Amino acid sequence: MQTHDCDVLVIGSGPGGATTACLLAEAGRDVILLEEGAHLGLDSAPPYSIAETTQKYRNGGLTVALGRTMVTCIEGRCVGGGSEINAALCHWPMDQTLEGWSERFRIRDLSNRSLEPFRAEVERDLTVSSLRGPLDGASTILKAGAEALGWRSEEVQRFWQYPDSGDGPGQRQSMTETLVPRALAAGCRLLPDTRVIRLVLGGGEAREARAIHTPPGEPPEAIRVRFRHLFVCGGPIQTPLILRRSGLQDPIGQNLRMHPMIRLVACFDDPINDPTVGVPVQQVVAFKPEMTLGCSQAALPHLVMWLGGQGEALRERLANWQTMALFYVLVEGTTSGSVQNLPLLNEPLMRYPLNDTDRGRLSLALQRLIRLLFTAGAREIFHPYAGHPPLRRKLDANTLGDRIPHGKTAVSTIHLFGTCPMGEDASRCVVDSWGRMRALGNTWINDASILPDTTGVNPQATLLAVARRNVRHYLETV
After folding, report:
1. 2-41+78-126+173-255+417-477, what's its fold?
2. Edge-to-edge strands, sheet with 443-445
3. 39 is an active site residue
4. Is 186 exposed, middle or buried (0-12, 13-18, 19+ CB in 10 A)?
């Protein structure tokens, strides 16, 4: 068995792990960054293609949380994690969100004011930018419909860098473009294609990580990594799985929170779909944080996915794909689920009981979105209620009911939280207010699993700022 030694081991290279590894390495710590997925970079496959899904998504994007209505949960599985596959939207949390977390979970020193220095660093290091040039077709539709209805909408800034010349589409500032290269330049050692099986524990601390390293085209090799301190940053699903496989139990893996999401396809008379623009940046924010209306990437494979159930008519409809666009509703979930291990299979057993409040919010958000799209000129809308015909007029939205039907609606999420919440309420908080575990004195968690509840906005910016806050506290106090 090959052995590696380091001062600090960081498990997981998404936004939380990349931030942790970068700041610790630049502070002179001997860091190993361990990642289950491959080290690929943004140019390894066309964005939002089937090839990218195969390369960079866990299970091809088909991890499921069980319940009367199943929720498909999308995870990145590559160096850089979710930052390599998401829309790179930068949206800071609302004051009421952080105030609510602090009160309910007794989190110390957490507010937009206390995060301001870290927010400034994030915006500088990841080049937060506004869109250059005109809005894409879907964003223009969303903005026009919102204005006609008197609903506030806005462009959401992105982690994006444009050429100094001002020409060209620019580049998403994912972790493989920013913090991972900085960590490596500062001496961090990266071990991709390496899956942690369990932690070896003793004396109230984690001693070493046992893992399987599988380089491309080579047989798997068992390795161990010994460390003085450990940061677990595998995300809201993988972090609790690693800890539970290592013998730790509740409340780890409880309190799973999410933003349930539903997409629909809207058809217009004129072409509006240009898949080269990436994910549109306009959102209706009038109803935040409870619900958001927005636009999705609408490349042809995505349209095929969300036009499922059209049978023989699918080919005919796709002949006019350039007149179609994808839109979504996203709501704050109000219930809690769980993440546990499936014995022998090394896969998560996830449960999320989509409750009546969640279903009602999704239905109301869908009706608002449908009203907006017809107001903006849609001639036909394909929504995700199984067996329900397409909508062709604004009043048809009234037939959808007060709650989405259980088991007959395609619900997904890309925003998960809360399985190892931070705070001083020891009865339910796995880590303290700065991410240090109560069960293991030399172990910290620094990913979205510590965000105790939904953010109500795209969460990457919140996580990046909180992760910096926690690493600074570690460097100052340990």
Report:
1. FAD/NAD(P)-binding domain (3.50.50)
2. 189-191, 31-34, 8-11, 229-232, 443-445
3. no
4. middle
pTM for the full predicted model: 0.95
Task: Give, for all 478 residues of the chain, the pLDDT tens digit.
Answer: 899 999 999 999 999 999 999 999 999 999 999 999 999 999 999 887 888 889 999 988 888 999 999 999 999 999 999 999 999 999 999 999 999 999 999 999 999 999 999 999 999 999 999 998 889 999 999 999 999 999 999 999 999 999 987 677 889 999 999 999 999 999 999 999 999 999 999 999 999 999 999 988 899 999 999 999 999 999 999 999 999 999 999 999 999 999 999 999 999 999 999 877 778 999 999 999 999 999 988 877 778 777 765 556 677 778 888 999 999 999 999 999 999 998 877 789 999 999 999 999 999 999 999 999 999 999 999 888 877 788 998 877 777 889 999 988 889 999 999 999 999 999 999 999 999 999 999 999 999 999 999 999 999 999 999 999 999 999 999 9
CB 426 within 8 A of CB 462: no
Instruction: State the catalytic residue, choosing from 4, 91, 259, 415.
Output: 415
What residue spans define the domains of the chain? 2-41+78-126+173-255+417-477, 137-168+260-413
> And the tokens for 109?
């020193």
Amino acid (1-letter code) at residue 181: P
Enter the tokens of residue 142.
């969303």
Question: Kind of pairing, strands 221-226 and 2-5?
Answer: parallel
Task: Evaluate whether 330 touches 291 at the Cβ level (below 8 Å).
Answer: yes
